[in-house]
Structure formats: structure tokens, C-alpha cells
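dumping this here so i dont lose it
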């Protein structure tokens, strides 16, 4: 391994050695202890038949009991250690408290449960939990740390592939944000799919490279406690970018076990990660870090090096508490950008046409969260702020514009962000019906300085357009601006009858931008837009452990601030004519959708959902970070599809999952601008994902042995609106095997792309010129999947 990684590992090892042992270190020698208590309602009356669970720190259920006639319960044979006590009842809110058991039995507990709102909100550990009677739709769910641990992944963004139907790929160097596909969308780097880290938004509006840019490289998978996901524009607390779906990553506040892990593998893969949580005063301190390096199979290596760190201090429990979290990420890389198909004979499938592409990125954040639960109310307030910096060098058309200097561009994005997310829920009864009303406020402000520059070998230079002879200035676009978004919502849940409940909501969002153009003063200005978003969900059942859902709603995504005030097109390769008028684009683009679904657990140990959905976007128009102009597809689009998700656990240690989704996407009118040469165009939305299959079999911790085999397949896509150019299907088979050698030691091996397929991560179709002397060609442009490789790791817990 490289000296820098070895040095980091040595420092981490010294730090770990200095740590005192946690209570778990002595648990095997402690005598069994009994935990006793009583469950009551807000008035102090006993609750009979409450379900009482003792879970390990990572959420695994260890033992269960029910409260008796006087509300009492007793759980015995518990070794010393830290646990989570989860108490639930159909008519009350679930409550979770932390419990520490020492050598002596703790005093009896008194657990008071608040009267339940319309639905029973429970803490779930993974897809094996039964959400019938809890979820609001058939496409809402949770994946826990246990399932994440057993998944072989190539890159950290693939944590999100636990969302059924979602595909994560990459079309450039490892440090660039992933490419996302879901529900008939090529979501680019995040548009129409919202990602949250402990409720802090990851997506970046008005980004220099792409609207809604969402970089998952800032996530350390080992610290993710669960991924809560939902699809469609039906959820009041999700505003911008949530039309196709959203994912809420919750991170550990205390780790199940402290750990240190080191990994290595083919193609220069090296990684070290550690995590420690311990008592500090009356709260808990968690801290950890990651050092990562990967060259990849590319002829010109990515040399991707990143550092991640996390620090959290938390007080209280699930019901009442406070936490503050700091995160830091720094990465730099070379870029294995996509290559044209006609360049493969010259550079090979893993070659590059511009070895100076690449970039660097940083993100440093601080967030604080406070929550309180009372008998008839819940309140949560979260404040966050972060600094973000990106310099990205890309070359997509090679020598098409300037055969002498090439077509490399630099995109720069620097910003400070501050935000607030506050919600308050009141539970009550209306005419004998249980009701919950939630009021929410979300505020976010981005102070941004970004730009687009013509470069050669990462140096800013003027260029000459090969068709017109026009000089393209080194600074194509440079702007300072603020992007402000304010959202308010009201959500009402009513249980009308034993088997019928509704979720109705009204959300309103205001976007406001104030742009100062440093190149073209005429493009300075302000723009504002307000959009209302009503939403309604009907839930019927359950009958025979089966529930039915009908949903409809409106949402939106924001467009780039610069496009909303722009009146003159920047002089670029797509527009080499000075003073060309530009049409301003709407700041907020409305979407609307509907869905019918069913969720059932009628078959023992099987969780199964089916949904039929429809989604309409008012416009596909967006600001192009690559040219400074706007992409041309102005007409609305319609998408529809079907999804079927299954999770089967026939045995305690064995699980199967099989998810399949198929979708279609069409413009409402012929798109002449995104078609093959000499074609009248068509109505197909380019890059829209169709068939997606994700399936796996997992053996978890059986006699110290775990294994997983996973298949990921996404089918051909239309690359042009007329369907003349189409991608091929991509299918990858990955596997992981792990074995716990001793109580504190284990190792694992990952096999990625087991079949060594030469499929593509991404395909496009556009015009390019691969050398200064070769003529231009409209052809398939792709980024290949990485070939078969083996990675291994050693893990120590303490």
C-alpha cells in the first residue's frame, strides 16, 4: 500500500489502542441481568399488551415480551451492555429509550406512551419489518445497517441502490457525483431525486455542472444506520427535487461496536476506516474517518484520493434529545471521462482522449438537531450550514470546437449554505376520530460563486470556433448570486375508520434568486416564483395482512438561477455568436403524479409490494452547465410504469430480495433538437431508463459466516428522441463473503463484476471529433463498467 495510507493506518491504530474498553468488551463475563418496568399512558393508567423489545445497538431484536394486566414486563438473561428498549402498542406512539445494564439490575423503568396519531410510527431496522398499517404507500420503505453491511459495493453512492428501481452509475472520475436513474428519468447528478443526510439536503441548486448536483462521496457507508426511501410527489416534507423520489440517510449516534477496518484490492484500491463512540459527560460522542484511494482499470489512472471525517455529540433518547454533527470531505482525482465509440480502436475501451481531465472537491458541514415528544405533540428543529467547493475539468467533444486547443472546459462552484428545517405535530381527536396535524417550515439560502471557463490542460485560454472563426473567451460565464428557497406545509392525517385513513397535505414553495453577472451585465437581475403543491393519499385496509393505497400530488424542481435572469446567451461552442438573445427559463418547474399500490405480508416471511404510477413534468428545460446556455427540450413529458418489490426471509439467517421496475417516458410533442442527424425527431425522452432488475440472496451471520450474491440489470435506453440510437443492456453480478474469525476479528472478500462483462455504465449519442485531423461524427459515447476485480478487508471491533 502507498506510504500515505500506511501512515494514516498507523495513526488510527495508535488512537484505537489508547481507547478504554467499552461495556461490550466485558459483556461475555457479566452475569445475566433482569430488566423490569411498567408501561402506562399519559394519565398513568396501565397499558396491557404492549410489545416490549430489547434490541442491540445496531437494531437487531434480541428478546421480546408483552406488558401484563398492570402494565408490567420483565426481560431476563441480559448480559451487561448498551441496549435499545422499544415499546409499542397499536393505540399509542412507539417509544424508544437507551438502556445500559451493568453488573447489578437497573431500577424498574416507567415507560409512558403518548396517544397514537393516525399511523403507528415505528423504528424499523430493515426491509424484513412489516410496514402494513404503518406505511403511507407501497413504494415507501426502510433498509437497515444489517442489509447495507452485507452488500458488495463498488462506490459509496451505491448505498442508494437499496432503493428498489434506483440505478447508480458513473460517467467520469471517481470524485464526480454519480449518475442516477429512476422512474423513467436520467436524473443526471440528482435532479428530481432528493437525498438527505440526517435531514440536511445533499442536492445543490444552481450548480456549475448540473442542477441538483448530489455527491455521495461525502458518505461513509459504515456510519449509515438506515436508509428511509419514498417515491413520487406525495410527501409534504419533501420539496425541491423530490418528484421521482427521495432518500433519507440516518446516521448512527452511537455505534453498535467500535471498529477499525482496512481494505485493499486490484487496480490500486486501498481504504482504511475507523469509528469510535463513547460516553462523554451525560451524552455520547461518536467520531470516525475514512482514507480512500483507487486508480481504477483506466490506462490513465483516476488516482482518486479522498478523506472523510464525522464527529457527533448527542444527548437524550428517541423521544427527547439533541445532537450536533460535523462532517468533512476532501477529494481529488483524474477523470476517466466517457469516450466516443469510434475512438476505441485508438485508445482502447479503458482509454481516454484527454488525460488532463479531473478535478477536486470539498464539503464541510455542521448541523444541530433538537427534538421533543410530549403526550400529544412532537417537535423537531434542525439547523445546518456548510461550505462547498468544486473545480471540474471535462472534455466531452474533444476537438469538435477548436482542433488546435481542444474542447476542455472548467466548471467552478463555490458556495456557503445555511438552512432550517422545523416541524411540529399535534395529535388529537376530531369527532372521535384520531387526527394528527403537522406544520413544517423549511428555509435554505445558498451564496454562490460559479463559472464556466475554456481550458487547455487545466489552463484557462481563449479558443477559436472551428465553424465561424469566432473567438471564444477564456471566461465563458462567471456569476455571483444568492439562491433562496422557502417551503411551508401542513399535513393532516385522519383515521376515518378501522380500515380507512387519509393523508392530505398542502405545501407552498417560494424560490427567489439575485444574480450578478461578472461577464455580461445584461444577465444580472432577480427572479421569483411561487408554486402550491397539494397532495392526497388514501390507505385502505389491512385485510388479511394486505393494504391498498391511492395517491396523487404535485411537486417541483428548481432550475438554475442564471437561466432565470439570462437575456443574452454566453459566447460558447454551442453559441459562437455574440449578443444572441436568450429566453429566460422558469425558476420552478411543476410536476404532478399519481399512483395506486398494494402491500402485503399475507405469505409468511414475505414482504411484497406492487405499484402502478404516472408522473408528468411541465418541462425538460434546464440550464446547461457545460455551455452556459439552455438545453432545448421545452415541451412537457409523461412517464408511467410498474414496480414490484419483494423481500423474503424463510429462515433466521437467510433472505432473498427481488425487485423489478419498468417505465416509459415520452414528450408530448416531437423533439427535433435531440435526434439523430437527418431525422425529424421523435417523442422518446433520451436516456430514460426502462427495465430495472435488482435481486440478491444473503446469508447473514450463520456460524460466523456471511455471504451475498447480487444481480443488477438495467435494460436498453433510447439515446435520441427518434430511437435511432439505443444503448445495450447492462448486467452486473457481485458477491461478498465474510467470516468472523474471533469475537473481535473478521475478514471479508468482495468479487465485483463476477462475469467480467464489457457493458456500459452510461451511454450518450452526440457529435464529436476524436482527433484534430479526423472529421466529426455523430456516434455513441460511453463509459464502460469496471472489469472483474477482487477486494478484501480485515475488520477489528472493540
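and the seq i came up w/
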Amino acid at each position: 500500500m502507498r506510504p500515505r495510507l500506511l501512515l494514516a493506518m498507523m495513526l488510527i491504530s495508535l488512537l484505537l489502542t489508547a481507547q478504554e474498553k467499552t461495556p461490550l468488551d466485558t459483556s461475555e463475563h457479566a452475569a445475566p441481568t433482569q430488566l423490569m418496568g411498567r408501561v402506562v399512558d399519559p394519565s398513568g393508567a396501565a397499558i396491557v399488551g404492549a410489545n416490549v423489545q430489547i434490541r442491540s445497538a445496531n437494531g437487531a431484536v434480541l428478546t421480546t415480551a408483552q406488558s401484563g394486566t398492570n402494565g408490567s414486563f420483565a426481560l431476563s438473561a441480559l448480559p451487561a451492555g448498551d441496549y435499545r428498549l422499544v415499546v409499542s402498542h397499536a393505540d399509542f406512539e412507539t417509544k424508544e429509550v437507551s438502556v445500559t445494564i451493568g453488573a447489578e439490575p437497573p431500577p424498574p423503568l416507567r415507560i409512558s406512551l403518548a396517544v397514537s396519531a393516525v399511523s403507528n410510527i415505528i423504528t424499523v431496522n430493515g426491509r424484513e419489518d412489516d410496514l402494513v398499517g404503518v406505511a403511507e404507500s407501497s413504494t415507501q420503505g426502510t433498509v437497515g445497517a444489517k442489509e447495507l453491511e452485507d452488500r458488495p459495493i463498488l462506490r459509496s453512492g451505491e448505498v442508494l441502490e437499496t432503493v428498489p428501481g434506483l440505478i447508480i452509475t458513473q460517467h467520469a472520475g471517481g470524485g464526480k457525483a454519480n449518475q442516477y436513474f429512476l422512474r423513467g428519468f436520467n436524473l443526471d447528478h440528482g435532479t428530481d431525486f432528493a437525498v438527505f443526510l440526517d435531514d440536511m439536503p445533499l442536492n445543490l441548486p444552481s450548480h456549475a455542472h448540473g442542477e441538483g448536483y448530489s455527491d455521495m462521496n461525502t458518505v461513509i457507508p459504515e456510519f449509515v444506520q438506515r436508509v428511509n426511501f419514498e417515491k413520487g410527489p406525495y410527501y409534504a416534507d419533501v420539496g425541491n427535487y423530490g418528484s421521482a423520489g427521495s432518500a433519507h440517510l440516518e446516521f448512527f449516534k452511537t455505534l453498535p461496536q467500535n471498529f477499525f477496518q482496512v481494505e485493499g484490492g486490484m487496480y490500486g484500491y486501498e481504504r482504511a476506516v475507523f469509528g469510535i463512540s463513547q460516553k462523554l459527560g451525560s451524552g455520547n460522542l461518536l467520531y470516525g474517518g475514512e482514507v480512500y484511494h483507487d486508480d481504477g482499470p483506466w490506462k490513465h489512472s483516476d488516482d482518486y484520493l479522498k478523506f472523510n471525517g464525522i464527529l457527533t455529540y448527542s444527548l437524550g433518547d428517541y423521544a427527547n434529545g439533541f445532537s450536533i454533527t460535523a462532517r468533512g470531505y476532501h477529494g481529488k482525482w483524474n477523470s476517466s471521462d466517457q469516450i466516443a465509440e469510434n475512438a476505441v480502436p485508438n485508445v482502447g475501451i479503458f482509454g481516454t482522449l484527454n488525460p488532463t481531465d479531473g478535478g477536486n472537491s470539498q464539503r464541510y458541514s455542521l448541523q444541530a438537531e433538537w427534538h421533543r415528544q410530549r403526550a400529544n405533540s412532537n417537535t423537531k428543529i434542525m439547523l445546518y450550514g456548510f461550505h462547498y467547493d468544486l473545480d471540474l475539468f471535462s472534455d466531452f467533444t474533444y476537438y469538435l470546437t477548436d482542433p488546435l486547443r481542444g474542447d476542455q472546459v472548467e466548471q467552478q462552484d463555490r458556495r456557503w449554505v445555511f438552512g432550517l428545517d422545523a416541524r411540529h405535530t399535534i395529535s388529537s381527536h376530531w369527532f372521535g376520530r384520531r387526527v394528527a396535524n403537522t406544520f413544517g417550515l423549511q428555509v435554505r439560502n445558498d451564496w454562490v460563486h460559479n463559472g464556466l471557463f475554456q481550458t487547455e490542460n487545466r489552463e484557462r485560454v481563449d479558443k477559436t470556433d472551428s465553424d465561424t472563426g469566432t473567438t471564444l473567451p477564456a471566461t465563458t460565464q462567471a456569476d455571483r448570486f444568492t439562491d433562496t428557497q422557502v417551503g411551508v406545509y401542513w399535513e393532516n392525517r385522519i383515521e376515518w375508520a378501522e380500515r380507512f385513513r387519509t393523508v392530505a397535505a398542502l405545501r407552498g414553495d417560494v424560490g427567489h434568486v439575485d444574480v450578478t453577472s461578472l461577464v455580461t451585465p445584461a444577465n444580472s437581475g432577480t427572479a421569483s416564483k411561487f408554486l402550491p403543491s397539494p397532495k392526497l393519499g388514501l390507505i385502505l385496509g389491512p385485510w388479511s395482512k394486505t393494504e391498498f393505497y391511492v395517491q396523487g400530488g404535485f411537486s417541483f424542481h428548481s432550475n438554475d438561477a442564471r437561466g432565470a435572469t439570462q437575456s443574452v446567451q454566453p459566447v460558447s461552442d454551442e453559441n459562437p455568436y455574440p449578443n444572441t438573445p436568450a429566453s429566460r427559463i422558469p425558476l420552478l418547474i411543476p410536476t404532478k403524479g399519481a399512483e395506486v399500490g398494494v402491500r402485503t405480508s399475507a405469505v409468511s416471511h414475505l414482504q411484497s409490494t406492487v405499484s402502478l404510477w404516472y408522473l408528468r413534468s411541465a418541462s425538460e428545460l434546464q440550464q446547461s452547465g457545460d455551455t452556459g446556455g439552455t438545453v432545448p427540450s421545452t415541451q412537457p413529458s409523461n412517464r408511467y410504469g410498474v414496480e414490484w418489490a419483494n423481500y423474503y426471509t424463510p429462515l433466521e439467517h437467510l433472505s432473498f430480495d427481488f425487485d423489478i421496475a419498468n417505465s416509459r417516458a415520452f414528450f408530448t410533442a416531437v423533439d427535433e433538437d435531440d435526434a439523430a442527424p437527418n431525422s425529424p425527431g421523435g417523442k422518446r425522452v433520451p436516456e430514460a431508463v426502462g427495465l430495472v432488475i435488482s435481486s440478491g440472496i444473503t446469508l447473514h451471520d450463520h456460524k460466523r459466516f456471511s455471504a451475498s450474491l447480487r444481480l443488477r440489470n438495467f435494460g436498453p435506453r433510447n439515446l435520441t428522441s427518434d430511437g435511432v440510437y439505443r444503448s445495450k443492456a447492462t448486467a452486473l453480478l457481485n458477491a461478498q463473503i465474510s467470516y468472523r474469525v474471533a469475537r473481535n476479528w473478521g475478514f471479508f472478500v468482495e468479487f465485483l463484476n463476477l462475469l467480467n462483462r464489457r457493458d456500459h455504465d452510461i451511454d450518450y449519442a452526440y457529435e464529436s471529433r476524436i482527433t484534430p485531423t479526423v472529421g466529426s461524427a455523430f456516434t455513441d459515447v460511453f463509459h464502460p463498467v469496471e472489469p472483474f476485480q477482487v477486494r478484501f478487508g480485515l475488520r477489528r471491533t472493540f
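Residues 10-31, 117-122 have pLDDT under 50 and may be disordered.
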